[in-house]
User: Fold this.
Amino acid sequence: MMNDNFSFNPVTITGIGRYIPETVITNEDIAKLVDTNDEWITSRTGIKQRRVVSGNQTATSMASKAAIDALEFAGVKADEIDLIIVATSLPDSLYPSTACEVQAEIGAVNAAAFNIVAACTGLVYGLNIARNFIMTGTYKKVLLLGVDVHSRFLDWNERSTCILFGDGAGALILEQSSDGRNDILSVDMHANGEKAGELSIPLNGKNCPLVEPNETKQQYVNMNGKEIYKFAVSVVPRSIKDALIGAGLSIEGLDYLIPHQANMRIISSIMDRLGLKEDQVIANLDKYGNTSTASICVALMEEILNGKIKQDSIMAMCGFGAGLTWGTAIVRWRAKDKRKK
Ligand SMILES: CC(C)(COP(=O)(O)OP(=O)(O)OC[C@H]1O[C@@H](n2cnc3c(N)ncnc32)[C@H](O)[C@@H]1OP(=O)(O)O)[C@@H](O)C(=O)NCCC(=O)NCCS
Assistant:
């Protein structure tokens, strides 16, 4: 018999974690590689330095550290996790998935695991997937990770791209809420594949022996910076407004904007278009550069640990990037750090 009495489970975020590698590359370091300088990079992007992997660090090792951080924050054991979703465009292998590698690394023996690719919008897409699994009752506890190792896919002779990115990993634990309150208030997601060529890392050349190697198109970030800039400032404010409408809120109901940390000029433009105040907008890309799918967690966690983001704060987390993809999640923050006495 059909069950018509279908109701959704409430969802909340209970944990956050991050991992940023130790090796720092400053603007001055990059100026030794290409014709650029700190003033140009800072004024065009807001970035002063970025962190990159070294030694045997990988996407999986960074994601696993972020995962453990988030599990400890939430007071959840790895074997309680039902599903691991890893948002990444730059995994260590095409398969197995980073999610399966993390599952083994952290001992999440009861979890299903898969990767998704939505570039720098990956965390927002992943949040929506995770919450839907919990809302429908399929799973109770989901570990969502965002990790990217851009330093391995940059042409360090190309000054318009190598200045932008840093490596890192971020993690969220989503759970069925125990008190009936739903904290993922809405999610807005979009894609426009017709503009895919504006930002891409092509697979070709030596990795595809059946086609002629194309030395001019190596597997590096290819980007039309101006188009990506125009795209971000035109679509993201609309997405934030639509997500707020979906949550039944107006811009006055928003406490904080946690944007993807791509470029300070893009972030300022979004802030101006929405009429937000500077202290409502979370940005730390000066220290870490654009850490892609990790950037929202990397920025959010800093402000949670220093006490700026408090219980019941309403936040818009927005992402944009290759695909092209973009989207916004409206989230009420209620997680308490279980490590604190
Ligand atoms: C990349 C970006 C900073 C370039 O800034 P811009 O003002 O658009 O600069 P342009 O590409 O028009 O280049 C202007 C000049 O600066 C030069 N230039 C580019 N990078 C430079 C650098 N690092 N240092 C010095 N000069 C640089 C260009 O060669 C060009 O010189 P020319 O006029 O002699 O040809 C900017 O387009 C941007 O941030 N776009 C968004 C990128 C992004 O966020 N991508 C990730 C999204 S997830």
Summary: The chain has two domains: 11-176, 184-333. The chain is about 30% helix and 25% strand. Residues 36, 40-41, 44-45, 120, 159-160, 163-164, 223, 225-226, 228-229, 262-263, 290, 321 surround coenzyme A (CB under 6 Å).
